[in-house]
Amino acid sequence: MNGALSRRRSRRWIKWGCVTGVLLGLAVCCTAPISGAASTLAALTQQQENSDIGLAGAGSSADIPPRMLDAYKNAVRLIGTKVPRCRGMRWPVLAGIAKVESNHAAGRAIARSGDIRPRIYGVLLNGSGAGGNTSVFTDTDGGKWDGTAEGERAVGPFQFMPATWESTGQDGNKDGVRDPHNADDAALGAATYLCGRGRDLGKAGQLRAAIFQYNHSNEYVANVTKWIDQYTAAARSGGGASLTGLKGKARTVLRAALAQRGVPYSWGGGTASGPSRGLCCSPSGKSGSSITGFDCSGLTTYAFARAGISLPRTAAAQAGRGRRIPASAGQGALQPGDLVFFGYIPGRDSTIYHVGIYVGGGRMINAARPGTAVRFDPVDAMPGYAGGARLL
Prior knowledge:
This protein is an alpha+beta fold. It has twelve helices and ten strands.
């Protein structure tokens, strides 16, 4: 759908993913105890560098602005009125596309009406080479959607070309206007485009064909599919966790962790005694100094302390406790109450950036990242599964 532009964009994603992986390989997720000492803070800063950036890439719906998620779900509800023969449309499909195209309109304000400001524009496709484009697309909309009559550029959170929008765009918020810069309209337009004349997107081959039609690039298809899988795992993470059958310290640890659900994430927050104010600041400028809560290893430190087990304060250090469960053993080797880890480089515990507590059923309870609260997440939703550790 976005042709050469998106093919080059997908390559840039892969390139930067590799570079970022190398740079973030030194990162560890969670900070050490708050002592107020400058030397401790300096050590923490070095040890924790860039961790929340890595967590932001995790495949939870928490990385989607609520208004955008509403737009995806609204499109799923309405697609039957636009393409009656379409089957298998799910919000993770739309989220996968929008994640790659615009990172869910990151950095923009999304109004209640769904309007996104400032508008999202791709590079001008005039063959100049700027932004990686070498093809020339002549203007089709007089600048109506892309803000320029000098050529074409992709628009909105789903990066429609203006000509494609004219033939596919929808009025998802029912205000009488089909606007690619509106979350509801764009999401329903994307759903309509993916459905074609009536695909069954529940079938892997037809889903792949739909994504490939959106952008004729195998790299793009693989990237979007990865995010669809992660968001699908996140969509299945609802519900509680049962303590039935658990005894002793495993029950104590999980009960303590589950009681903290909803407590906000605080960069550097959490001690063996409970939630606490965190530190300033994470690499992306997120401060925990005014937030009483937990970061990932703060939560595990607290929960295991309830069972009389003292843990070191960082995720990587916690991987050195108990009996290590290698990633190669698979998630089936995990038991409720095990620590579960995620790292940037497989097999290198020094690169572990996140820790949670396994609750069973493929899920963990964790303090995921700034802007979230203690919650359940599928283990599959986090990248870089690094196995677990059994202390109980």
